Amino acid sequence: MTQIAAPAISPAITYLNKINVKQTLSSQSFDKWRKYIYENTGIYYQDNKKYLLESRLQKRIQHLKIDNFDKYLDYIRLNPANSSEIKYLYEAITINETFFFRNQPQLDALVSHVIPEIMATKQKLGKSKIRIWSAASSTGEEAYSVAMVISELLKPKYPNLEVEIVGTDISYSVIDTAKRGIFKEYSVRNTPIFYLKKYFKQNANVYEIDPKLKELVTFKLLNLYDEVGMRTMINFDIIFCANVLIYFDIASKIKVVDKLYNSLLRNGYLFIGYSETLQGISKAFNIVSFPKTIGYKKE
To answer: Is a pLDDT exceeding 80 seen at residue 10?
Structure first.
């Protein structure tokens, strides 16, 4: 019986097969990546997050046809000006989960106590502008929620009130989504019907923010660990920085909170996530209690 030889496998096919095989992030590579991410973003991956980082980087090394994690790190380091790849890296390592009216007690405190208190001081000085910063704003739901409650509940009370709301994030894609102002049902699931009908235009399962509301909010890229960028964020009356500190170690938390403190005007307020605390991080703020939430005030 005649033997038929198997067709030869070309080197190119062998290489592609190698690329498509899931790569493993070794402990040594994990330490290198953890150090690089920490030094550039302040985000610290604990030992039990090794698999998470591996899975998040996997798609990029396959897309770039790089056959291991060390070579991808070398590629990043050798191309510091390659902002497009840094963009993909930051998107891979960050978590962007949010929705409208996520922290109602903070919005209630903003409307009933914080802004009236700040406005009372400003009006004595003949001023009427309030600047609000939504740090790590993700796709913009927090910033737009603030804009809605101010427009609906405070503008009638303070006709001369000027509001500037700035949303920032390290991820290019979420900033792009925030600027477009188009959201799916998941994002609006907690939105009161009144606001949903007044400030959104629905098209099937997609909801678009009212253009007039979008004019109140601007979005831009910002790494909270970037010294130069943070120096541009000054003279804010209120800062929201929720669910960010949980990804930092103590040294990074101290650094970022110190920068946020410097970004606030005197008597300004900082709000963080309900599961976060400044205990052991900063003694510069005074704690102010509100119904079901707390704020940190710069005296």
So the answer is: no
- Domain membership of residue 2 (yes or no) is no
Beta carbons of 120 and 113 less than 8 angstroms apart: no
Is residue 136 located within the same domain as residue 268?
Answer: yes
120 and 39, same domain (yes or no): no
What range does the domain containing 19 cover? Answer: 11-93
Report residue 2's pLDDT band, with 50, 70 and 90 as the boundaries: very low
Residues 88 and 108 in one domain: no
Tens of pLDDT along 122-179? Answer: 999 999 999 999 999 999 999 999 999 999 999 999 999 999 999 999 988 899 999 9
Q: Which residue type sits at 276?
A: E
Residues 6+ apart with CB under 8 A from 205: 184, 185
Nearest 10 degrees: Cα torsion 259, 261, 266, 269:
130
Q: How many domains does the chain have?
A: 2
**268 and 137 inside one domain:** yes
**What is the spatial distance between Cα 114 and Cα 121, in angstroms, rounded to a whole number?**
11
**What pLDDT is attached to residue 187?**
96
CATH number for position 148: 3.40.50.150
Q: What is the pTM of this model?
A: 0.82
Q: What's the pLDDT score for residue 40?
A: 86
Q: How many residues does the chain have?
A: 299
CATH number at residue 76: 1.10.155.10
Q: Coil, strand, or helix at residue 59? A: helix
pLDDT at 58 over 70: yes
- Angle at which helix 50-63 crosses helix 11-20, to 10 degrees, equals 150
The C-alpha atoms of residue 56 and residue 209 are separated, in whole angstroms, by: 31
